[in-house]
Inverse folding.
């Protein structure tokens, strides 16, 4: 093989290598097993973690929240609208505030993790505010900025009737 051809081959291989690395990086959240990134999840702190003390009585929930679509699609490139900044490679931090890796979320006991999040968010009496800041504010900020697909801002669009 001529030096030139070998070099070309090397360069091609190198390019291919970095494409693979990029593809791997971009698809990382998608590669979490389904059980670790549930497609949908119902958000209701009182029914899922009744042991968290000091919460207000259960009044509202969000049924069948499109968890996976948010994590893998909706949030892409939208960190500027979020109360909690995140990167496209790790969108989880938008809602799982302070998390540094997916394993930190999936490996924890759900209710211990939520107890810590509630404390971090200002305590049980601030739970509603904390969740609205995470969820509703992004939708509102996107709507204000004139984004075409911004997510719901009205109460019953999240909570049902
Ligand atoms: C973008 C979605 C979204 C919108 C819009 C929204 N909420 Fe919420 N809200 C949530 C989430 C998520 C929670 C946490 C639910 C839970 O864990 O029980 C929550 C919690 C609450 C709670 C506390 C419920 C409880 O059981 O502790 C109340 C009350 C509430 N919202 C009322 C409202 C009202 C009134 C509006 C309209 C002015 C509204 N929400 C708009 C997402 C939303
Ligand atoms: C747009 C907000 C949002 C994003 C982004 C997000 N999550 Fe969640 N996730 C939630 C909410 C809200 C819950 C329900 C309350 C809780 O368990 O924290 C939840 C629940 C979970 C649960 C527990 C599921 C259950 O039903 O027990 C796991 C595991 C999880 N998320 C992992 C992740 C991982 C990993 C990522 C990033 C790839 C991620 N989430 C991204 C909002 C989000
Ligand atoms: C960083 C921005 C951002 C955050 C944070 C966020 N959303 Fe959204 N959400 C979106 C966008 C964008 C859409 C619309 C996507 C579309 O229609 O293509 C959306 C759509 C929705 C919808 C309606 C469509 C659907 O697929 O379900 C609901 C309900 C919703 N979000 C609830 C929530 C809740 C509850 C949280 C917090 C746990 C949350 N969102 C956090 C950006 C966000």
């Amino acid at each position: 093989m001529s030096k030139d051809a070998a070099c070309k081959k090397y360069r091609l291989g190198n390019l291919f290598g970095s494409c693979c690395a990029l593809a791997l990086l971009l698809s990382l959240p998608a590669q979490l097993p389904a059980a670790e990134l549930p497609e949908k999840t119902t958000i209701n702190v009182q029914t899922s973690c009744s042991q968290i003390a000091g919460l207000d009585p259960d009044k509202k929930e969000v049924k069948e929240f499109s968890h996976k679509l948010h994590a893998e699609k909706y949030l892409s490139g939208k960190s500027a609208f979020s109360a909690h900044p995140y990167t496209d490679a790790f969108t989880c931090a938008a809602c799982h505030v302070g998390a540094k890796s997916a394993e930190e979320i999936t490996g924890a006991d759900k209710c211990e993790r939520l107890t810590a999040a509630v404390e971090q968010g200002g305590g049980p009496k601030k739970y509603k505010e904390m969740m609205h800041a995470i969820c509703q504010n992004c939708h509102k900020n996107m709507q204000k900025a004139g984004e075409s697909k911004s997510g719901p801002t009205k109460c019953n669009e999240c909570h049902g009737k």
In short: The radius of gyration is 20 Å.
